[in-house]
Amino acid sequence: MKTLIVLNFKTYSESTGEKAVRMAKYCEEVSKESGVDIIACPQIPDIYRVACSVKIPVFAQHIDAAGAGSYTGHITAECVKAAGAAGTLINHSERRLLLSDVDSAIQAAKKAGLKTIVCTNNVAVTSAAAALSPDFVAIEPPELIGSGIPVSKANPDIVSGSVSAVEVVNPRVKVLCGAGISTGDDMAAALRLGAAGVLLASGVIKAKDPKAALFDLVGKL
Ligand code: G3P
Description:
Helix content is 42%, strand content 16%. The chain is of the alpha/beta class.
């Protein structure tokens, strides 16, 4: 299985609007040169412009459980797919859903042909998420998000524990980890723990030179 990097643009101004396109182009260049798969997750209104500008996969940061119809202000799987997204994050710690809504969102995403990454905050939630059969779960301890302290070094047990839990519950699901990841060492440590890749944001988005940060990330593979 190929190593995967998922870059969450969050709502950082460094990765909003035209800057989202520039950030996605860095991802594309580094992916092309390194051979590592990189997915860009811009804000939802930026999906269309980013997807029109790069060939790497673009994922939404969130979808709602709502389907098509009499709903206002919701983000549907169908709409992000039509905008050019190939997949979506679901239940990010900064955009949590009820478990029943996580299930509905996964079903809606599958119906629309979107890949799914369900974010989890501990091993028990990882098990619950894996039972819903997303393509990936991404374990991210909330207290380490944006801290610069890598989960793969600060809390290796939560990563290896998630990998073991998923093997028991639903071995087809792949495990990513995130929070505080920023260097090639952090990334290599995540892979040694059994993760298929990483989900990260600030280490690249807030870096002085995001392209160099991405190259550093893939440098130890
Ligand atoms: O979705 C990625 C995330 O929550 C981790 O954020 O800034 O710690 O890489 P960060």
